Amino acid sequence: ASKVGIADIAFFVKLEGGKFKVKTLANPVENINLRFKVEKQEVVIDEFSLLFASGKVLLDGKMEDYTNNRKFLVNVSLEDILLQDILPAEQLPVEIEGKLAGKFSLYGLGFADVEFKKSLYGETNLEITEAKLKNFNILKILLDKVTILPNLSDNLYNNLPQEYKKIFDSKDTSVPSVEL
Questions:
Q1: Residues 180, 126: contact at Cβ < 8 Å?
Q2: What DSSP state is assigned to residue 163?
Q3: d(Cα 100, Cα 128) in Å, to the nearest integer?
Q4: Model pLDDT for residues 55-65, shown as the tens digit of each residue
Q5: Closest to 97 in 3D by CA, of 135, 123, 147
Q6: Bridge-partner residues for 73, per DSSP?
């Protein structure tokens, strides 16, 4: 089709309640909703949302002049994505729990490899909260490995205030919130 023919195309697409399964993920991607339109040299994604890893992914975006420059903008928002659902335990040395949330935006031109790489720009803000290394108390493991000072772990433990003994006795390692 010629560029003039493509420019004359206009349509609207709506998908509700879609679902698919990926082998590497424990749970399916569900409740996929999509609304986008193509008209006047512009593609607009009004809504693309789905439930993923017990959380939600939201996306919107726009491409201008899709037959020539292909200037695009994509915004993505992540809400309460469970780390344990996206990081397979059998591939990690330790089991991880926690939540991922955040936003990122991508801007660029075209889809040709060189043009795309040169123009691609993005901003991101991600946060990991409620993170734990399950059945892995790093403090206790590290102190037990210090063999230069005999009984370091026991002596330290016996002199800790009660609230710190709870941390020492925990089978998990809690990780403070991380912002990226």
A1: yes
A2: H
A3: 5
A4: 999 999 999 98
A5: 135
A6: 62, 107
User: The dihedral of CA 59, 60, 65, 66: what is its sign?
Assistant: positive
Question: Bridge-partner residues for 134, per DSSP?
Answer: 95
Q: What is the DSSP-derived secondary structure letter of residue 12?
A: E
Instruction: Show Cβ contacts of residue 103 under 8 Å, excluding neighbours closer than 6 positions.
Output: 75, 76, 77, 78, 124, 125
Confidence check: pLDDT of 174 > 60: yes
- The HSE-up count of residue 63 (CA atoms within 13 Å, CB side) is 17
Asked whether the whole model's pTM tops 0.85, one would answer no
CB neighbours (10 Å) of residue 128?
A: 19
CB 47 within 8 A of CB 26: no
| Distance in angstroms (rounded) separating the CA atoms of residues 26 and 91 | 13
